[in-house]
Design goal:
The protein has 2 helices and 4 strands; from the N terminus they run E-H-E-H-E-E. The protein is an alpha+beta fold. It has a single domain, classed as Translation Initiation Factor IF3 (2-Layer Sandwich). Strands 1-2-4-3 form a 4-stranded mixed sheet, with helices on one face. The two termini are 23 Å apart.
Length: 82
């Protein structure tokens, strides 16, 4: 597994099934993923948290995230996270 971080942007269409599949496919290669929310996605802290929670629910127990501004950093772990 590579330790290089992948980057993905979410725009005005928001979180679509295609974006979720793209995120899952990137985690097959990368351990870290940086998702940037563009202004057209809506710069709102609550919306950022909602998007991060929706992605985490889709990914499962092996992932965690951290929000910095309007950027979400996801990390994949070897063992499930509580």
């Amino acid at each position: 597994m590579s330790t290089i971080q992948a980057t993905l942007q979410i725009g005005k269409n928001g979180l679509t099934p295609a974006i979720l599949e793209n995120i899952k496919s990137r985690f097959k290669v990368y351990r870290d993923l940086k998702i940037i929310l563009l202004k057209s996605a809506g710069h709102d802290r609550e919306k950022t948290k909602e998007i991060a929670d929706a992605i985490l629910a889709e990914l499962g127990n092996y992932y965690t995230y951290k929000i910095v501004g309007f950027t979400i950093f996801f990390k994949k772990w070897r063992k499930p996270v509580n």
